[in-house]
Amino acid sequence: MFKRILIANRGEIAVRIIRTCKEMGIKTIAVFSDADKDSLHVRYADDAVNIGPALSYKSYLNVENIIQAAKEFKADAVHPGYGFLSENAGFAQACQDSGITFIGPSAEIIEKAGNKSAARQILIKLGIPVIPGSDDVIPSADKACKVADKVGFPVILKASGGGGGRGMRIAKNRQELIEAFPMASGEAEASFGNPDIYLEKYIEQPRHIEIQLLGDMSGNFVHLLERECSIQMRYQKLIEEAPSSFVDDEFREILGETAIKIAKAIGYFNAGTMEFLVDKNKNFYFMEVNARVQVEHPVTELITGIDIVKQQILIAAGKKLEIKQEEINANGWSMECRINASDPQDNFMPSPGEIESIIFPGGPGVRIDTHIHDKYMVGPFYDSLIAKLVVWAKDRPSAVKRMARALDEFEIKGIQTTIPFFKKIFKNRDFQTGDIDTHFLENSKL
Amino acid sequence: MDDKVYKVASPVMGTFYRASVSGQPPLIEVGQKISASDIVCVIESMKIFTEIRSEYAGVVKEILVENEEPVMKRQELIIIEKI
Questions:
Q1: Domain annotation for chain A: domains and CATH numbers
Q2: Do A407 and A387 form a contact (C-beta atoms < 8 A)?
Q3: Interchain pair A382, B46: CB under 8 A
Q4: For all residues of chain A together, what is the average pLDDT?
């Protein structure tokens, strides 16, 4: 087993990974930028290394500095978290070349899986339904228009290098597409260090349903059921839950088997997620592989009792999966709200600033994953996610009530957050009954 | 205040960029003539890019901030002489 793991990330996910490492008796090395000196991940880790200035490309996207820190502090493995370098094949390769285990799939698989256009080609050959769109990365707005004319508007631009809504833009016509292209590419570059963009036909009224997978290096796979992530704002997930009220046992089996089939086809290993768009008739289209731990992994952990980060570490250390598919059952219901530093009263504009005070919710079935604390400076340099509020209860109606209760307890002073917005959603009748799709927030009058 | 001068301010705390995509030429240069609603710079805050447009036609008189420099909410970025 590894003795020392460097966490090549920041924020709540760095804290999350450190927690599992501590429980496994593994020493941790945090990396941090000039802006993150006071962050909790720095405090919780056994060692911490400054890797550069606040701007991501100078620190958290700086492969050279991170590898150097890993060598200097004798890390035998690196956990990349999500975002930043987590789906960067060059980084995985650099780890490997330095004799450090990358906790995730190999560079080659990341290249194949993380590169959505390449993954798509493989799946089309396998007969797995995909959304019509560009066969490859789109080099220019002009080429984007040609593809869009073929598949029909509306279309959506997506970043090849990573997910999470970054670099994602929708266009209803040629004019919008021409304007959206450079912005999408710029966001993709800033978020993932890769400006590549591809294009898809935009499916209307879909649900976002994804399957969490674990695969070891001997080719054994299990799926940890589905998550529903249909509550989105500008293609960014805001609320996730597991299981999905739209998925029955039969459909779950189909999705799970399809996800494993995709993973096997690309030789995938470690934790990963297969994302699907599902229309109201349960037609499903493969969207992308997320070759990393996801932001919303806690909802799966709470209904299955499986620590996904621990599984990632065990798999990376060459252990075989000890979990059997038949042992995995959904126990109760879990929901997650992403508490973002953005202002629901001002069109969700980013709301960086200093946190004056916080009161966290607690009590039965409440989990908080966060890096913030009183007097914490939420800078403008990184993602607006400041906390994940996750609840567990015996069924969906109870989980909805529990989340509403926890949101009422949650108080953050000094900056604007999405908490008041979530309070409204949890009072909405359509949401309460599970009548949702990815346009819920646009169409409901909250 | 001189009503012939228009100052573009940042709507949010973030990072100032002179180009839409890094590596590309700046959107504006000092002395350049611009039209109302032209994009003059981009502010990135929490990985969200906001294009900042000029409210007036004019000539770029001064750019007060360096590329990639952090800026505060309401900080003045660009001075434009209205025409």
A1: 4-86 (3.40.50.20), 132-201 (3.30.1490.20), 207-443 (3.30.470.20)
A2: no
A3: yes
A4: 94
